[in-house]
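sorry for the late reply, my laptop died twice this morning and i had to redo everyting from scratch. anyway the thing you sent over, i finally got around to it. pasting the sequence first so we're on the same page, its 121 residues, then the predicted structure underneath. double check i copied it right bc i was rushing
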Amino acid sequence: METTSSSADDTRAGWSPVFARVRLKKGHHVVTRHGRAAAVLVPADWHARAGGELADTITAQVAVRALAELLDRAEAGEHVAVTYRGRAAAVAVPPEWHAKAADETPATATTPASGPAGSSA
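ok and here's the structure:
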């Protein structure tokens, strides 16, 4: 899995390419604040395979406008889905949870009904 990172300010300024990378290319994106990881944006399907539980769902527009609140929630341990066109596209998760889940979750999984994760059969 490709992992990129940027500061909260840079993430806010470049939200569209960051969100697209997570949503379309299935990359993971670390958002830093005050020099340390505050949250990791992961693809929604990866989050589900990793066994994550959602605390809330917000739109992408709300996420970029209220990025500080989204980071606060992730730092507090919440998993918050970010929707695109009405569907969960990414999830902001705590960095510690991401590190543990990344060690335990394969980058792709195959199911008989859908083929490789993230593709449509």
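The radius of gyration is 13 Å.
thats about all i looked at so far, will dig more tmrw
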